[in-house]
Amino acid sequence: MKTITITAKIKLYPTSVQMVILNKTLSVIRDVLNFVSAFVFGQEGIRYLELDHALYYPVRQQFGLRSQMTQSAFRTVLAKYQSMKSNGHPFSKVSFRNFEYDLVWNRDYSISCQSVSLNTLSGRLHIPFELKGMEHWFCAGGRFGTAKLIRKNRKYYLHIPVTLEVENRNILNHIVGIDLGVNHLAVSFDDEGNTRFFSGRAVKEKRAKTLALRKRLQTCGTKSAKRKLKKLREKETRYVTAVNHAVTKALISQYGAGTLFIIEDLTGIRTITEHVRLKSRYTMVSWAFYQFREMLEYKAALSQSEVLAVDPKYTSQSCPVCGNTTRANRNRKKHEFCCTVCGYRSNDDRTGAINIYHKGCNTLFAEACQA
Ligand SMILES: [Zn+2]
């Protein structure tokens, strides 16, 4: 049994009257967040109770916020400062630019078949929504966490964390998403939020070194050139095999028994060209990916673990925070992912691993609900 949490991103369809209320609420909350943030910035290390003591009445009076919303705002601001600190960023003033509002389950929001019910500055609203393929996330047994109401491009979304105990597939310890690539041979992202990078530089450099020689031999075409070329290929194969062995072994020993490894199902050519554009490298790399998967599968089986392959569609283009999916999110040259909507920024291969991890969790949810 394993507890997993995924975020359901549902689209809301408010009426025009409801939109006015939502906009007003989001805009006041953003003002409050920035007001509270300015205060917290001047009081480094302030705790919740002190903050509540200092700002509870001023915020309620000045902004007309309800009691629960005021306290939610304090928590949101403190959490932002805390995450800045734990990510190792220097202490600086946090400003809230986006429209977002944190809602506590059963207090600020609830959900039924037809609508979500939200707490706003003007009381409760019942807004129709669309699930679209996420129905299974709401099957019996899931626990809902603190949701976020988000407005982007004049559309409204509710991001709801859903937690479920998964009993299928014998997972006891870990769930790990793995992104395979060239720059990083593999990047893993696990259920505790840890990322591990397995450099592909050595393989890449080795290949680049022999490229000129390979080209010369290819154009030469004599018998001895062909023999040398074959030798070179064999050498490269041995090298890639050794690296794949080392990386799969490291993953297995890192996570131990009872782990579910999630990888992309690289059956389609499109994904492979997405990873690797150069035609000459295509065969080599796709072969290396298959070998990696095979090795991981048999080693996983030996350690009572499992490998799950998921659809690779958009794993490199989707924002793990807001769900925005576009090619422009990824800068290949800089090896960086930067969301064009919410500004989320990270290493591109790491982002791929996070998306693969989420896809795997989604599959587990679907399986759990069918069972
Ligand atoms: Zn985003």
Automatic annotation (TrEMBL):
Domain Cas12f1-like TNB, chain residue ranges per copy: 289-356
Keyword set includes DNA-binding: yes
Pfam families according to UniProt: Cas12f1-like_TNB (PF07282), OrfB_IS605 (PF01385)
Domain of life according to the entry: Bacteria
Domain Probable transposase IS891/IS1136/IS1341: 159-257
Keywords, in A-Z order: DNA recombination, DNA-binding, Transposition
Family: In the C-terminal section; belongs to the transposase 35 family. In the N-terminal section; belongs to the transposase 2 family.
Protein name listed in UniProt: IS200/IS605 family element transposase accessory protein TnpB
